[in-house]
Amino acid sequence: MRVLVCGCDGYIGYPLIQNLLIRGHKVLGIDYFYRRRMVKERGLDSVILISTWKRREEALKKLGDFRFSLLDVAQHYSSLVEVFRRFRPEAIINLAQQPSPAYSMIDSEHGNFTIRNNVQGALNLFWAMRDYAPKSHIVTLGTMGEYGCPNMPIPEGFFKIEYEGMTDILPFPRQTNSVYHTSKVMVSDLAWFAARVWELRITDIMQGVVYGTRTDTMTKTVYRTRFDVGECFGTMINRAVACAVIGHPIVLYGSGFQRRAYIQLRDSVDCLTLMVENHPTDEDSIHGYRVINQFDESYTCLELAELVREVGDSFDLDVKIRNVPNPRVEPEVHYYNPKHEKLYRLGWRPKKNIKEGLAEMFEDLLPYKDRILRYKDKIIPKIRWRPRAYG
């Protein structure tokens, strides 16, 4: 299958392409290297040393039929059209996203960039798909954070509603708490529109928080993916393990009772591959629009910190936990019960449990203790989501 992967240099995108190539797919990758630039802007770099793109590109070509195009899907529409015309993709994966809630909340410039990059980029892909690859299938990456924390179970995208004696099946309401999450909702709305009006086949992944350092394809140093630890691009578990490695207390925002859905990096790659290879059907989609809640298990931040401490003990580390004022605007304690059945019906199962994944992370990060120590001052959150008080 010819697969177009937008965002091929990222934390998920790079190992995903490795997996697709090994499975025999022809892949064309697109990137404009925003992730590398955004991380450096925050005074950080990947803790795990990663190769230059030139070396990565050479390594990918050794795995299979790979080619690359440098372009910004949000800004270079004519170049994107040429890619569609030449490559004729049968499947598209859109990972060309600004992925950080905190980054989107720095100021108006960063918020506007997030909206422009994420929403305009997705719309450009839908337009190109409509006009040049209408029979293909696009997988776009949303987030479980789109749903917020409603006081009821969260379905996979749609639910049955009754109002004034009438019933219908409608998209489940979204309620966000950052510009980033709002951009994801806007992309989901565009996807629902494109499926209904343009009859495109779309899988919208509501992915849990991704963590981990390995996938099954990282057999050589050049195939390693990036690993970030700052408040913008380091996810909760990734930051927690990094803290434990350097002897810094694991930082919990507020109460630590906020519950979220989580998935290991290797499982995220496997799930996205599964979605590419299994297009939406009448049974699991509405108007060709399929929503997947992609995660393994849910935990509170405190439960995760305790798991990290437990695994850290086996590496003779004295792991401590510290609560700090929550910079975010979010419920400190809430009900959380999202459904995630479609992946399991397609045959997916997680390969390793969370303790096994954490042990791998400690093994991979301990050699980089000195690099993590360089960024110790970036661990405590400084970006405040609440408006300033005047007067």
Quick overview of this protein structure:
With 391 residues, this protein is an alpha/beta fold. Helix content is 38%, strand content 19%.
Share of helix, binned: 25-40%
- Tally of alpha and pi helices: 13
Question: Class in CATH?
Answer: Alpha Beta
Beta percentage is 15-25%
Structural class: alpha/beta
Largest sheet features: 7 strands, parallel
Radius of gyration: 20 Å
| Largest sheet, spatial ordering of strands | 3-2-1-4-5-8-12
Going by CATH, the architecture would be 3-Layer(aba) Sandwich
Silhouette: globular
> Which regions contain 5 or more consecutive residues with pLDDT less than 50?
none
Walkthrough of the structure:
The protein has 391 residues and is of the alpha/beta class. It has one domain (2-378): NAD(P)-binding Rossmann-like Domain (Rossmann fold, 3-Layer(aba) Sandwich). 38% of the residues lie in helices and 19% in strands. It contains 13 helices and 14 strands. The strands form four sheets. It has a seven-stranded parallel beta sheet with strand order 3-2-1-4-5-8-12, with helices on both faces. Strand 6 (158-163) and strand 7 form a beta hairpin. Helix 4 (77-87) runs parallel beside helix 6 (108-132), helix 8 (236-246) runs parallel beside helix 10 and helix 8 crosses helix 12 (354-365). The radius of gyration is 20 Å and the shape is globular. The N and C termini lie far apart (61 Å). The model has no long low-confidence stretch (mean pLDDT 97).
